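sry for the spam today, last one i promise. struct tokens for design, 148 residues
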């Protein structure tokens, strides 16, 4: 296989591992859909990125799926909506105290995911990977903007 194929397969496998780890624990334990668990994980791990639009953009999920998940999480009292003081069209999302046990399990899954993905990689190589990954993210962002 060529390098591009290997790279794309690697990315997809990492995503699949993360999703399967969420399904096996968070989704099963708290009767959540994968999208609901992803919304909770995103809001917890990304302070300041707290709108459905942020989730759609950064996690590349379908807008309708995120809307359904948000509605369901609000009904389950795991999430609340709050209108932005300056822009009434913008709705901020925040986790409730009832979501705390879910968040704790999400944290555990994130630690386990990190341990499995980066097993055997030295701190120096991990630092280099982080720098390269940041540069790649910037390059991709610019390429998408250029084509947008």
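last one done:
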């Amino acid at each position: 296989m060529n390098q591009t194929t290997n790279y794309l397969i690697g990315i997809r496998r990492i995503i699949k591992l993360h999703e399967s780890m969420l399904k096996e624990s968070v989704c099963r334990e708290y009767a959540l859909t994968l999208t609901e668990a992803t919304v909770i994980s995103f809001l917890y791990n990304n302070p300041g990125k707290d709108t459905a639009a942020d989730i759609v953009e950064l996690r590349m999920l379908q807008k309708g799926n995120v809307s359904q998940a948000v509605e369901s999480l609000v009904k389950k009292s795991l999430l609340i909506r709050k209108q932005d003081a300056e822009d009434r069209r913008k709705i901020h999302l925040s986790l409730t105290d009832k979501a705390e046990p879910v968040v704790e399990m999400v944290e555990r899954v994130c630690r386990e995911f990190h341990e499995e993905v980066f097993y055997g990689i030295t701190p120096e190589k991990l630092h280099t990977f982080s720098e390269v990954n940041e540069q790649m993210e910037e390059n991709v962002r610019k390429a998408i903007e250029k084509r947008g």
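Helices lie at 3-30, 34-45, 52-59, 63-75, 100-117, 123-147. ok im logging off now
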